[in-house]
Write a structure and sequence with these properties.
Number of domains: 1
Oligomer: single chain
Largest sheet: 2 strands, antiparallel
Helix content: under 10%
Radius of gyration: 18 Å
Structural class: mainly beta
Strand order of the largest sheet: 1-2
Low-confidence stretches: none
Distance between the termini: 26 Å
Mean pLDDT: 90
């Protein structure tokens, strides 16, 4: 799975809990995956392709290549 190359965000594992009548009845393993895109950026005049999460992209931590 891809990882954000700016903030190192990757998948998180945990348990999904289904609750029935105010009692925990079942637990199932689950992964939460970040929203990662592959984009082209400008890095000191050179164009590179990296994997970046959308929160880093929206905050302006990199400049996109046109």
């Amino acid at each position: 799975m891809a990882k954000c190359e700016i903030c190192e965000k990757s998948r998180i594992t945990g348990r999904r809990i289904s609750i029935t009548r105010s009692q925990v009845s079942r637990r199932a393993k689950r992964d939460w995956k970040p929203n990662i895109k592959k984009i082209r950026i400008n890095d000191n005049g050179t164009v590179k392709t990296i994997n970046i999460c959308t929160s880093c992209l929206r905050s302006g931590k990199v400049t996109r290549a046109v």
